[in-house]
Design goal:
The complex is a heterodimer of chains A (294) and B (305). Chain A is mainly α. Chain A has a domain of 205 residues. Helices cover 73% and strands 2% of the residues of chain A. Chain A is globular. Chain A starts with a helix and ends in a 14-residue tail after the last helix. Chain B contains 12 helices and 2 strands. Chain B has one domain: ABC transporter involved in vitamin B12 uptake, BtuC, CATH 1.10.3470. In chain B, 74% of the residues lie in helices and 1% in strands. Chain B is globular. The chains are: A mainly alpha (294), B mainly alpha (305). Chains A and B meet through helix 3, helix 4, helix 9 and helix 11 of A and helix 4, helix 9, helix 11 and helix 12 of B.
Chain lengths: 294, 305
């Protein structure tokens, strides 16, 4: 019985970690090239969740269509932010702080724009998956959790393949070492950055919709990205496998803490992990070691 | 608009200004960015409120004790994290601020999520004016002293400062402790004005707000921080009729400032300099150069990698 409960918790943790991972890779990809933490990511996730919601309720789309649409919408929003907010800063070669502050400005803007236009109410997605849990032996797995884990696995594997095996991915990897050198080698850096925001945005949109389906949709849903940001730092900012491993670990730790200690300590543990990792090993579990960061 | 209403906003300006002055030293003069100052503010607010409600201490010692405890915690945080560079220090302060809030939320002695209520109403216009006047004069004196110049040297170029014999860690620590004390006193003033405090009053958004004020006023300018505080505290009140659109405009304004006028209202210039044209030009030029320097640094870092 003990063992089963533990396994059940592990799967819940894996599902939570998968949502974190879909968001955390967005932070890590942007950080690896542009060296700043894109705090506007939460806004992109929130807009993704709303696109999915309205596609299914107002436009009556089937689930898969709404799902694709929210990925595309969130991806385009991320690119739009890059073009309107970060490109002017990039042209001026602004220090990282200006990026962070603008990102926070963008996040305040998006959140309150939604509150002002759509309203602050909590909204529930129409039911897609039956609430009847999927039984595996004595374990009962909720269908939405399985869906989240599957989407995260497929999305993240695709992302890793794009980055590791394709020419575009080579450009992204090269730019993360040095933008200037890769520019000299003929990498179109503007296009690479555009692509990084697009990929991060698409996954963020998926994460937003799935998270909204599991719970509800509301304008401050983007606050969950603070946790995925902790996960990205935990795994090592700028490292893709680090972001994924950090997210899964954080998800499992959180679920275990709320299962065996108290759900009140869940968030606290996450931030204590953040501080301890920065003190012990600021580059995270898998971050590239470089002296200027430590 | 009644005087009562304006007085309320002025008192609000007062305690915000205390936090902003401290942050101005840390960010504008030492070049360190913090997203956790709401945490120091919370510590000051809770310590002073506990002192007055549970131990019957009078307002002034309670306020000072709040500042001292915030300073001590700041020293501890600095010891652990000041060796981190750039955005990693920033992330550490973010974690610190949120951790403080969550600890308060789970600590029954200080009321958990409900917080503390029934705090005596002690903060009035007179007390915030006195606090802000002392705070401003002390900060002005500090940044013009030898120690202040050492702190500024760290902002300009940490490596060069260290080479010139400045103990950079020590001066960064001093800047962090002083700014934590200011934030703690600001928190104490807030607690004794609102007469109740709750952990959710000290969310990360608050820390961001204060950093935005410092940047809006202009890095490296004390008077800029003061003007910035007044504008950004009064403006939302003026726009109250716009309701939810207020924060939409605010977010947009932040982006526009970052993109169009990165050195803020008075970057590197003090109010007195405005009447001395050459001094103003020189300071403005320096501020422009400083931003270019910050780029130079990041380009250098990139070359190292």
């Amino acid at each position: 019985m003990e063992m089963e409960q533990f396994l059940q918790q592990m799967i819940n943790g894996l599902s939570l970690g998968s949502v974190y991972a879909l968001m955390a890779v967005g932070y890590s990809l942007v950080y690896s090239i542009m060296n700043f933490s894109n705090f506007a990511h939460g806004g992109v996730i929130m807009v993704g969740a709303y696109i999915g919601y309205f596609a299914m309720t107002a436009a009556n789309m089937p689930f898969w269509m709404a799902f694709l649409l929210c990925g595309v919408g969130a991806g385009l929003l991320a690119v739009l932010l890059e073009l309107t907010v970060y490109t002017p800063l990039r042209n001026r070669n602004a220090p990282f702080l200006y990026y962070i502050i603008s990102a926070m400005g963008a996040s305040i803007f998006l959140e309150n724009f939604v509150i002002a236009t759509i309203g602050p109410t909590y909204r529930t997605y129409p039911q897609v998956f039956s609430h009847e849990p999927f039984r595996l032996g004595s374990l009962s797995l909720s269908r939405i959790d399985l869906m989240i884990i599957a989407v995260a696995a497929i999305g993240l594997i695709t992302l890793v393949i794009i980055i590791d095996k394709t020419k575009i991915g080579l450009g992204i990897r090269a730019s993360s070492f040095s933008i200037k050198a890769s520019q000299l080698m003929g990498v179109n850096v503007n296009f690479t950055i555009f692509l990084v925001f697009l990929l991060g945005g698409i996954l963020a949109g998926f994460a937003g919709m799935l998270f909204g389906m599991k719970y509800t949709v509301y304008p401050t849903i983007g606050n969950i990205t603070t946790k995925s940001f902790v996960a990205a730092v935990f795994g090592g900012l700028g490292s893709l496998p680090g972001a994924i491993i950090g997210s899964v670990l954080l998800g499992i730790i959180e679920v275990l803490v709320s299962g065996y200690l108290s759900s009140n300590f869940r968030d606290l543990i996450a931030f204590l992990i953040l501080i301890s990792i920065l003190i012990i090993k600021p580059t995270g579990l898998m971050g590239k070691s470089s002296e200027d960061k430590a | 608009m009644s005087w009562y209403y304006i007085e309320g906003i002025l008192i609000q300006c007062g305690y915000v200004l205390m936090v902003v002055l401290g942050l101005s030293l840390l960010t504008g003069f030492a070049g360190l960015f913090s997203f956790g100052h709401a945490g120091f503010m919370a510590i000051g607010a809770y310590v002073s409120a506990i002192c007055t409600t549970k131990f019957g201490l009078s307002f002034l010692p309670a306020l000072l004790l709040g500042g001292v405890v915030a300073g001590v915690v700041g020293a501890g945080l600095g010891k652990l994290t000041l060796n981190l560079k750039g955005d990693y220090f920033c992330i550490a302060t973010l974690g610190f601020g949120e951790a403080v809030r969550l600890i308060l939320e789970n600590w029954e002695y200080v009321g958990g999520a409900r917080g503390i209520s029934g705090i005596p109403w002690e903060t009035n216009l007179k007390s915030v004016i006195i606090a802000c006047a002392i705070g401003t004069l002390a900060l002005m004196a500090l940044v013009r002293s030898r120690h202040g110049r050492s702190i500024i040297a760290i902002r300009e170029d940490e490596l060069a400062a260290e080479m010139s014999g400045i103990n950079t860690f020590r001066y960064k620590m001093i800047a962090l402790i002083i700014s934590a004390v200011y934030a703690g006193i600001g928190g104490g003033l807030l607690a004794h004005y609102m007469t109740y405090i709750q952990p959710k009053m000290f969310q990360m958004v608050k820390s961001t707000e204060y950093t935005i004020i410092v940047i809006f006023g202009g890095l490296g300018s004390v008077t800029g921080s003061i003007i910035g505080t007044f504008i950004l505290t009064f403006l939302p009140e003026m726009l109250r009729s716009l309701d939810n659109w207020r924060l939409v405009i605010y977010g947009l304004a932040v982006i526009v400032i970052m993109v169009i006028r990165p050195r803020g209202l008075m970057g590197g210039v003090e109010l007195g300099d405005i009447f001395r044209l050459p001094a103003r030009r020189r300071a403005a030029k320096l501020a422009e150069e400083r931003i270019k320097n910050m780029n130079g640094e990041s380009a250098g870092e990139e070359a190292q990698r």
